[in-house]
Amino acid sequence: MVTEQVPLTVIAKEWGRIGVLGFGGPPAHILLLRRLCVEQRGWLAASEFEDGIAATNLLPGPASTQLAIFTAWRVRGTAGALVGGAAFILPGLVLILLLSALFLSGNPPRWVLGAAAGAGAAVAAVAAQAASALVPASLQRSGAGAARVRWVCYLLLGAAAAILTGPWLVLVLLATGAAEIAFRRGARRISRTGDTVPPRPKGDGPRAALPLLVPGLAATGGFGALAWVAFKVGALSYGGGFVIIPLMQQDAVHRYHWMTDGQFLNAVALGQITPGPVVQTVAVVGYAAAGVLGGLFAAAVAFGPSFLLVLLGAAHFDRLRANTAVQDFLTGAGPAVIGAIAGSAIPLALALHQPWQYAILALATAWLLLLRRTVVPCLLAAAALGTLAAISGLTLP
Description:
The protein has 397 residues and is mostly helical. It has 2 domains: 85 residues, no CATH class; 296 residues, no CATH class. It has 16 helices and no strands. The radius of gyration is 21 Å and the shape is globular. Belongs to the chromate ion transporter (CHR) (TC 2.A.51) family.
């Protein structure tokens, strides 16, 4: 528990350090934040930190970013949240924009094209691994019997939506969450009349959240369209990480033609290998749409809701966690999120063009799903193989 006011310079330094070192996604971010706030500085009790993880997992958008904002808010209030959140986000944002300039330039060197094509070839395997990692906890949360059957249905609906509907996946997630609320509310009514209902197992499911806003119509192009795409990523996505892919791909590639399928794969790979949240992939999309200004604008729109949700809602997180309807929504939307992440692997794989890219995809699948190794070394190795393919004179996509 904080007993004295922590200087903003200290918050900027410590949260910025985590932003620089935070390779590996949310698990790495959570570990570094806990080590700082609980173990080294003693600013938060262990129970407070765990409650922060649980609460931010109920919100749409990037959970680890929201945890960074929340812990900085606990340390120094609104000013701390703004400084800590910005310091956490900016290092990865700067790096990903620099890499975007290299990978998306009009005439990049051949080895750069090869590295991009190699890393992009592994992205479908990364999506499949991300989905598989969420399955056990989600199954435990769902329960048995009819609830397990619904779990499978939600999973299939999420996968179909990711493959077929693209940016409107969010409506399927809303529907599955609402359906589970209705099913469980009905079961509790029956239970109160004398029948028994199996208790729901405890445990954390995959990230999902009760939406705060309803999607509207995007502008036909320009910064209005970019704002809508980034807004969906930051405020209307559930599950974080790879669930943003189908939300962005249809718009960025097929609707507005800001980038090709291959460039979108590069964007996802860059979001994985840079420090900070995977949501920063949206900055690459923004760069493709309107240069550096577009990248900064897209990042601001995508991360803005995270700041607002924490600043306006942090004092009420305990009540949010205890709300039965919220918990039921998560139970239904969770498997749809898993299906969406798994389903996104199919269009990502179909975007590959060269046989050697499929060979890299097979190797990445074995590395991630069979050997259960980590993502960043996989993508770096895939990029190196792509560079070798380019140097060897193999055809590039």
